């Protein structure tokens, strides 16, 4: 049987680790607060690479694994 992988965004964990709010991340990244909320809740089925890049820059991540994880099912 073929393995299936799920991409998991860890934006919620990243902002909690940094002690900032979704609103603050929206201000820092220039992304609408509703979009940040959708990403954090996992309700987005498609992620815009530009958004991911802006979030990474705003949070000053050292490696993309701070924001993205793969899980095998």
How are the elements arranged and paired?
Elements: E1 5-9, H1 11-18, H2 22-29, H3 33-41, H4 49-59, E2 68-72
Antiparallel strand pairs: 1-2
The quaternary state of the protein chains shown equals single chain
Gyration radius, in Å: 13 Å
The percent range for helix content is 40-55%
Uncertain residue ranges: none
Please give the domain count. 1
Question: What is the N-to-C order of secondary-structure elements (H for helix, E for strand)?
Answer: EHHHHE
Q: What is the name of the CATH topology? A: 434 Repressor (Amino-terminal Domain)
Summed up, the helix count is 4
Average pLDDT figure: 93
Instruction: Kindly state the number of beta strands.
Output: 2
User: Based on helices, strands and strand pairing, what is the structural class?
Assistant: alpha+beta
Beta fraction: 5-15%
* CATH architecture term: Orthogonal Bundle
Q: Describe the biggest sheet?
A: 2 strands, antiparallel
Sheet with most strands: strand arrangement: 1-2
Fourth-level CATH superfamily: lambda repressor-like DNA-binding domains
Tell me the name of the CATH class: Mainly Alpha
CA(first)-CA(last) distance: 11 Å
Shape label: globular
